[in-house]
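hi! just following up on the protien thing from before. the input was this:
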Amino acid sequence: MKKIAIIGAGISGLFIANLFKRSPNFQVTIYEKNTSVVLEEGYGIQLSVNSIRILNEIGFQKLKNDEKFTPEKINFFSNENANKICELDIRDFNSEECKYTTLKRSSLINFLKIDLKDLIMTGYNISKIDQQDKLIKLSFENNKEKECDYLIIADGVFSKSKSLISNSKAKPKYNNTLAIRGILTKSPEKIDNKNINLFLGSNFHHVIYPVNPSGDLNFIAIMKYGLLAQEKKNYLLFSDNLFIKKVLDKVPLKNKDFLRDLKGLNIFPVFVSDNFYKLQNNNIHLIGDAFFAFPPSFAQGASQSIEGAYELFKSIEKNNESNFFKNRAKKTKMVNIRSKFNQFAFHLSNPLTTFIRNIFLKRLVKNKIFLKSYLGKIYKN
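and the predicted 3d structure came back as:
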């Protein structure tokens, strides 16, 4: 029986642990630096059809219907006047068993950890990683030491484990954007609270969508914002009331009243991966944001974490993990390019280019060939 050590109890770490737990050939343990698994109660995520198909292998279809939602379309609006541009029917990517799904992040985390019980070790902050012959030795700040045959690093975009292995060479970069997120306590005007609503604007876009049938709405906005070097490192800044007010004052919306109604308002800088870091050891792998962190403009962070974790599990199970990096990097590059393009298109400010973009949008959302190529290869493959 091979010993699997997973660093990080996020979506990718918990999901791959579920897969290993179901196999008789592996003994899995998750090491989480925090004293409990971080839920981030309330905030929403979107899961494309392909990730739902994979999640169903561990029983996701049994999650109560009041904890998830299946929107049918994406409504595109203009930030400037709140007029609707067009709509995209996403049901074409669905099957009877697998449908594009939105839900609270906490609901997914609770589902993923329910069968893991004593396999999650909290308060384990990694301090050193050594490889001795074919075994990997892990040292933690609580003076505990563990050995494993495979190490899976899933501790996020600021992965400490990745820094230890790469000698801090693989660092994320600031995306020159801030994320503003929270839960809406009431629905703003013109909002379709049964579907995804995407508002496009000058250097700013925001998305509002339901996370359950009860009407809870997730709000996430991405705004271009320059930060000084010291500001990027000062995370206390992003909970400072004066800074929050300064950011909200710069939000390019005529009516900002609904921002005051956000529950659990959170502002944070967006960091993304600049490139891939290829490990030399076939027994150590990166998944989730530790592998690559995307610009948040394609709603693919959670879906790609699940997809990547599944691919790694299959490659280790088949003793073919040497191909994992090449295959995952290929898919990740495609998603990353489209995420960057989406952000560029969403944030256009020139009236003429915005007008042209809107014309193209109206045509492309009805073009089956384009949708199959642009979205089908990511949503359903």
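The radius of gyration is 21 Å.
DSSP finds eleven helices and 18 strands in the chain.
cheers
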